[in-house]
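We emphasize that the prediction below concerns an isolated chain of 143 residues; any contacts that depend on oligomerization or on bound cofactors are therefore not represented. The input was used exactly as deposited, without trimming of termini.
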Amino acid sequence: MASSPFHGIFSAFQTAQSAEPEGAPAQKKSTPPKGVGQIAVDIYEIDDYIIIRAPIAGVRLSDLDIEVDDRTLTIRGMRRQGEELPEDRYYLQECFWGEFKRTVTLPMAVDPRKVKATFSKDCILKILIPKEEKIKIVRISEV
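Result of the prediction step, given as a token string:
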């Protein structure tokens, strides 16, 4: 696998999956803990851009906030559940509803004014971050 400038930066998702024997009756699972959730992202590079892509079903554009500060990009939002069900009605509840936040540390400082984002009708958030070459200062001495 090729070396990536993002290796080791992102927090990993921790999911608890229990293996149940075939034919075992379905057991009720507890509701995920309340709090701030996290979204999954794909991060890749094409030409002169770093691209962050996040499928965020159940979210409207008006419920998203993207903040860029030097080397940090933060995506915040709210996923609203259309119908509220009592907890005892669920057999399994894995979907996260409520506030979410994802912070990504970028491999270089970026100009926030140049970052662009789109949100497709399929609820895919795509953030385009232009890579800029830093000009190194070179001292020229007299000969």
